[in-house]
Write a structure and sequence with these properties.
Blueprint: E1 4-8, E2 37-43, H1 54-58, E3 63-67, H2 73-84, E4 103-108, H3 113-119, H4 121-133, E5 137-141, H5 143-148, E6 151-154, E7 157-159, E8 170-173, E9 182-184, E10 202-203, E11 212-213, E12 224-230, E13 240-244, E14 254-257, H6 267-281, E15 291-292, E16 297-301, E17 320-327, E18 332-340, E19 346-352, E20 363-365, E21 371-378, E22 382-390, E23 394-396, E24 405-407, E25 417-424, E26 432-433, H7 437-447, E27 467-471, E28 480-481, E29 491-495, E30 500-504, E31 510-511, E32 520-521, E33 528-530, E34 535-536, E35 547-549, H8 552-562, E36 577-579
Parallel strand pairs: 1-21, 2-3, 2-4, 4-5, 5-14, 6-8, 15-17, 26-31, 27-30, 27-33, 31-34, 32-35, 35-36
Antiparallel strand pairs: 6-7, 8-11, 9-10, 9-12, 12-13, 16-25, 17-22, 18-21, 18-25, 19-20, 19-22, 23-24, 28-29, 29-30
């Protein structure tokens, strides 16, 4: 496999003194941006049988609906599979393999809260809680609002009824159906950031069907009142019908709504629902760093969700994983390497001082190659963020239950990968690195051609070169430069009288590049290669057909020395001594 390499030369000063230790600074103010879809609509057991909401088209949201509203054994199996997980998706559709939210928002319909809450089972309820704790937001209408609370005030005490406790307070039951109160929006309500609602701070005739109100909202610090009921004939007049709560900057925002704004297609009631969605989106938890990587460290992320190791979990579909490293001043030869496993397509990105989401990355590799490297001669010191995003996902073809995934379904259990970062102390000399094997080969064949032009590739076979000599610690012989961009100079010169190519550098060793394939390809008269011991192959991964010649003598001559090549990083060395 060929890897993709970006080489960037940044003209920065290199420290000459002691190599100072740099400390990573990890931000906690950048919202997560990478999700499978915007919103999942929960139309599970004993919930109202809606498949869509007008507001999702209005706001152009990507959505899915889990649809199994009737209480049947078959629907219970489907609901458990989606929310608790199964063999093809251990973590369920709500969560990624590391427990992070797969959607930005879970919207829970109206219906029968206690029946639905209990039908989720303990495992399903735990996954709903993990969704919000991981940074996903929750909106619930009526029954969905009840479910968001710690319980229901009842007969001087309270009952839980399988509720989720996302808002750690108690709801009150209105005990009235089919009424249409006015919502009064407080002048400090965050919903006014999105819509003005006619300037009178009112939304008229909001459908209400025995949903909750929140009399004791102020017992939970951090609770915001988004709208109050205006219905003088009933006990909840003037009390909150819609509240919001965000436990911390890391968690998502929870919005229980006692009424039913979700099915209005136009007007202020639709805009009210849109404002709830926008406020939920603005309340997503911040992006999180998996780990700080240190120089030379390689980290493998290959655990399934049922192995309970989120710090080393696989990456889910369209998810981003984030790492940081603290680069000291004067660091050189900085390399960030990513290797994707099992044929998955992962992107590699890098940003300074902030999370490397697609739109924020300074450098990126976004092709389908499984091995990717970002390489820099130098980078400015400080905290660098590595972003890895899984570009593979599933296709939902819908069906009776709203969700039926086809395509790359293996990604539901995550894609494994290995990430590493390395750099050299700024006091060390730069490496002398030969060009990629095929490039080097074409240059030296061109040297032996009349009218040599280093800007023109010469692919045809050559019968003039009899010997190649590698010399290090030698600055006396100049010629055509054959070093990789950013390395110490390496020169090649041609002596026609002896048929010799001499390769020299002042550096103590010459490193072959990532690939040495065809480095000495089709040098038909080659009899000897001197100084192969001056070549360092510790970073070479591809030796395929390194020597391709008609001359058996040449191949036998070099084989003994190349047996000492360092091939610990070799991926392939097929037909290294190819020829007739």
């Amino acid at each position: 496999m060929k890897s993709s390499i970006i080489s960037a030369l940044l003209c920065l000063a290199v420290a000459t003194g002691a190599f100072a230790q740099e400390k990573a600074v990890i931000r906690t103010d950048v919202p997560n941006k990478a999700f499978y879809k915007d919103l999942l609509m929960d139309t599970g057991i004993e919930m109202s049988d809606y498949m869509t909401m007008p507001v999702t088209d209005y706001l152009k949201l990507s959505t899915e609906t889990m649809f199994a509203p009737e209480t049947t054994d078959a629907n219970q199996v489907i609901q458990n599979r989606f929310y608790c997980g199964w063999g093809e998706d251990f973590n369920g559709i709500l969560l990624y393999p590391d427990g992070a939210p797969r959607y930005k928002i879970i919207y829970v319909n109206g219906g029968l809260a206690s029946y639905h809450g209990r039908s989720l089972t303990a495992a399903g309820r735990d996954n709903f809680r993990a969704f919000v704790e991981g940074g996903g937001s929750y909106i619930g209408s009526c029954a969905g609002a009840f479910m968001a609370t710690d319980g229901l005030v009842e007969d001087g005490g309270y009952t839980n009824n399988g509720y989720l406790g996302l808002w750690p307070g108690l709801a009150n039951n209105t005990d009235v159906y089919d009424i249409y109160p006015t919502y009064i929006i407080p002048k400090d309500s965050p919903l006014l950031r999105y819509y003005k609602f006619g300037g009178d701070f009112k939304v008229d005739s909001m459908k209400h069907w025995n949903g909750p109100y929140f009399e004791h909202y102020d017992m939970v610090p951090g609770t915001e009142v988004l709208a109050r009921n205006d219905y003088p004939a009933y006990k909840y007049h003037g009390l909150p019908s819609v509240i919001a709560y965000k436990a911390s900057e890391a968690t998502g925002r929870v919005i229980p709504c006692g009424g039913h704004p979700e099915q209005y297609k136009s007007g202020e009631r639709r805009d009210f629902m849109a404002a709830l969605v926008k406020y939920a989106l603005d309340g997503l938890g911040y992006a999180r760093v998996k780990a700080e990587l240190h120089n030379g460290e390689s980290r493998t992320m290959d655990k399934y969700s049922d192995e309970d190791d989120p710090a080393h979990a696989r990456i889910g579909d369209l998810q981003c994983h984030h790492f940081v490293f603290a680069l000291p001043e004067g660091a050189r030869d900085v390399t960030v390497s990513l290797e994707a496993g099992e044929g998955f397509n992962l992107s590699l990105r890098l940003a300074k001082g902030t999370f490397a989401f697609k739109e924020d990355a300074r450098y990126a590799l976004e092709n389908t190659e499984p091995v990717k490297e970002l390489h820099f001669q130098t980078l400015e010191k400080g905290t660098w963020y590595i972003g890895i995003q899984c570009e593979d996902t599933v296709t939902n073809i819908g069906g009776d239950h709203g969700i039926n995934y086809v395509g790359r379904t293996a990604v539901l259990n995550g894609a494994p990968y290995t990430i590493s970062v390395s750099w050299k102390d700024g006091t060390e000399p730069a490496k002398a690195v030969l060009r990629t094997g095929t490039d080097f080969n074409e240059i030296i064949k061109g040297l032996a051609s009349p009218g040599f032009n280093p800007g023109v590739r010469k692919i045809s076979r050559d019968s003039l070169i009899r010997k190649i000599v590698f010399r290090v610690k030698d600055a006396s012989t100049a010629g055509v430069k054959v070093s990789e961009r950013g390395s110490e100079p390496i020169y090649a010169s041609w002596d026609a009288s002896t048929g010799t190519i001499t390769v020299t550098t002042a550096a103590p060793v010459i490193y072959t590049n990532r690939t040495a394939s065809y480095m000495f390809g089709y040098l038909n008269a080659l009899e000897k290669v001197e100084g192969l011991s001056n070549l360092n192959t510790s970073e070479t991964q591809y030796f395929d057909s390194m020597f391709v010649a008609d001359s058996t003598a040449a191949r036998l001559n070099v084989k003994k020395e190349t047996d000492r090549f360092d091939k610990r990083r070799a991926r392939t060395s097929i037909n290294m001594f190819n020829g007739r």
